[in-house]
C-alpha cells in the first residue's frame, strides 16, 4: 500500500472476474489464484468458463461459471469484458452486484489504420458508466494498463507495474490497491476520483502504440512515491 492505512485482509474474500475467459481476465485470475486467493471466472458461456478454470487448476483455486453466478459469488467483482458489451452486461447484473466492490477494468478503444485511439463515452469513461448503471455498488476503476501477455505468461514471475486505482470510496480503493499488491512486482496506487478515469483508460492506447513500436509489454511506474 502507498500510505499508512492498515492493509485490508483479502484471505476470506472471493474474487470474481466477469469476462474471465479473455486474455486479460484469464491473466488476472492466474495471478490472484497464484497469490492464494479464491477466484471465480465468469463468462456468457459457463462451459467455456469451466474449461478456462480447469486450465488454471494447477495454479490455485479457480472455478468457472456464468457471469451471473460469478457476480453472485464474488466479494470483489472485476469487469473485464469487451467495451461493446459493457453496459448491457452490467445492466443485467444490478441485483447480483448490489453492495459489492465492482472493479471496472474496461478500456473503450477503437482501432484503425493509424493504430489505437480512445473512444468517446457519454458518461466520461467506462468506469463512470459502470457507476451510473450500478448505483447500488461500490465502483472502482483499476487494472486498465496491465499487459495481458505478461499476466498470462507463467514464466514471468514478477509483473513490474503500478496499478492506478480510481474511486470516490476510500475503503473500496484501499481494498483494490491491496488486491493489486498481492501480485509480485505489482503496486496498487490511488490515482484519483472516478471523474479522472477517462485519461487512465485512454492511456492504454498510448501503451499499445509503444508496445507495437518497441516490441515490448510496457506498463506504468509512478516515481517518488
Automatic annotation (TrEMBL):
Domain Pyrroline-5-carboxylate reductase catalytic N-terminal: 14-108
A biological process term (GO) from this entry: NADPH regeneration
GO molecular-function terms, A-Z: coenzyme F420 binding; cupric reductase (NADH) activity; ferric-chelate reductase (NADPH) activity; NADP binding; oxidoreductase activity, acting on NAD(P)H
A cellular component annotation (GO) from this entry: plasma membrane
Superkingdom of the source species: Bacteria
UniProt KW keywords: Oxidoreductase
Keyword Oxidoreductase set for record: yes
InterPro entries (UniProt xref): NAD(P)-bd_dom_sf (IPR036291), NpdG (IPR010185), P5C_Rdtase_cat_N (IPR028939), STEAP_metalloreductase (IPR051267)
The name this protein goes by in its record: Pyrroline-5-carboxylate reductase catalytic N-terminal domain-containing protein
